[in-house]
Each structure stands twice: as C-alpha cells, then as structure tokens.
Amino acid sequence: MRRDDLPAAADDAPAAADVLRVRTVWISDLHLGTPGCQATELLAFLRVVECDTLYLVGDIIDGWQLRRQWYWPQAHNDVVQKLLRKARKGTRVVFVPGNHDEFARKYLGHNFGGVDVVEECIHETADGRKLWITHGDLFDGVIQCAKWLAYVGDWAYELTLRVNRHFNSMRARLGLPYWSLSRYLKLKVKRAVSYVGDFEAAVAREARSRGVQGVVCGHIHHAEIRQIEGVLYCNDGDWVESLTALLEHPDGRLEIMDWSERVKAYELARTSSIVVTPASTFSMPS
Ligand SMILES: [Mn+2]
C-alpha cells in the first residue's frame, strides 16, 4: 500500500507542497527528557517528513538525566506520540538504543506499539548498498574506558547548554543571531584531543570488518557523510544543537538534512513577504 493512500489527521496534515517524501530517515540523539532537546523543531520536521522506514539511532530518551531530575514537557510527549502514530500509519519504525537510553537494551527483540527494538541492524539502500546501523557509543573511547568520566562529561555538557541558553537569550535581546557555545566548545575540545576522528575511524573499521559498504551512527552530535578508508561513514547528527537528520531518497542517494537551514530559509521568505506587503500598499491609489 502506498503511504499517500492513507488519510492523515487534520491536526498534523501538512500542505501537500510541504511534504518531504523520502525512502528512509535516520534520526538520533533527540535527548527527550532534557531541556536541551529541541522538541518543537523536531515535531515540525516529523510533521512534514514521510518515509517507508524510520530509524531511531539511539539516545532518543535520556534516561541518565531523567534519573537525576524529572523533565517531561508536553512537546516531548507529542514527539513520542508522533513516532508511535507513524508506526501505526504504516511506517516501519526501528529503535536502536544508545547509551543514554541503555534501559531499552533490556528489551531487544521486542516490539512496542509498532516500534522494533534492536541492538543493531543492516539497512539495504535502493541502490543495493548495505549499511550497518548502530548508535556508536561502543566505539567511544571515553565511555568504554571510564564510564564515570562520561557521566561527568554529561553533567558538564548539560551545564554548557544551560549557559548557552542564557547567553543566546541575551544575544537575541541585542539583536544578534543564535550562536551555539556548546557546539563551538565541543568542536574545539574534541577536535583537539582527536576524539571525533578516533571515533569515526573506529566505527568505519568495524563496518568494514562486517563486510558492509557503510555505517550509520549518531552519538557524537556531528552530522557527516564521508568516505573513510573505503567505507561510507554517515552520522545523522542530533536534535539538541544541530537539528539534523540523514535521509535516503527513492534512488538510494543519501543526504544530511539541516533543519535549521530550512527554518532559516522559511523565516527569510516570511520576512521578505512582510517587506513586500507594505510596499504594495503604498503603491495603491488612494
Ligand atoms: Mn550517545
């Protein structure tokens, strides 16, 4: 059955022109249950995207932070509802748990409301490439060698995000555009200790040893598609800082979608239409 044949509910049916129709979507690192999660933007994306298969590549619900402090606003509930709804309406939804939602690793092989929970899986693209799907934390040197350090890092990260929010509301008041402090710091710090590079190389190496053409992971909150030693390395990014997803088009072409770019383009179109309207008003004969 074609997805288009299914009637969509009025409440979340986007205008036909706004629908983003793709074969596959990968999202990860939503961190639902934390103030950092950009649930409203994520919801806007989920409303316009339509796909045959949706992979949730880990760190969907942040059990680490929920355990410290309960945080669950309506928008986070809406995201979960939206995901379950997609599963109900015919999208194949696959959940590959990460380290922040490791509690779900107890339920591997089970199905919750149409969502399959698996440790890892292989996806075959429309053009016949095999992609291994894993969250990626098993290849994070910090997590594997010193879990306590990962927890401390997590706390420091949360603090940075909080500082970032205050910092940006101040910038907004001064009329300056949004600038991610946490993204800047992480890129600087992690690049410096070659953290990102080591992670990417380790994941790609494992993918090659499994005899697949590529790998899709998340975890480091840095979206990327590139070739690493003959293996296609894809990272779908996150919904805390960068608002990114990995898409597979009907012909098998892979692409990183930067939702913030789309929002910016939309805002621009809206502001310019506001500029146009008064001008046409002025030209009207009185
Ligand atoms: Mn992770």
Describe this entry's structure for a reader.
By secondary structure, the chain is of the alpha/beta class. The protein has one domain: Purple Acid Phosphatase, chain A, domain 2 (4-Layer Sandwich). Helix content is 40%, strand content 19%. It is built from eight helices and 14 strands. It has helices spanning 39-48, 63-68, 74-88, 141-145, 147-173, 181-192, 195-209, 259-283, and strands at residues 20-21, 24-27, 49-50, 53-56, 92-95, 111-112, 115-117, 121-124, 130-133, 214-217, 224-228, 231-235, 244-248, 254-258. It has a seven-stranded mixed β-sheet. Strand 8 (121-124) and strand 9 (130-133) form a beta hairpin. The chain binds manganese (II) ion.
List keywords for this structure.
286 residues; alpha/beta; Purple Acid Phosphatase, chain A, domain 2; 19% strand; disordered N terminus; disordered C terminus; binds manganese (II) ion
Number of DSSP helices? 8
Distance between the termini: 57 Å
CATH architecture: 4-Layer Sandwich
What is the molecular shape? globular
- Hey, roughly how much beta strand do the residues contain? 15-25%
Indicate the CATH class: Alpha Beta
Q: What ligand molecules are bound, each kind once? A: manganese (II) ion
Order of adjacent strands in the largest pleated sheet: 6-7-5-4-2-13-14
Could you state the oligomeric state of the chains shown? single chain
Mean pLDDT: 84
Counting structural domains, the number is 1
CATH superfamily, called what? Metallo-dependent phosphatases
Number of strands: 14
The largest sheet, given as strand count, sense and whether it forms a barrel, is: 7 strands, mixed
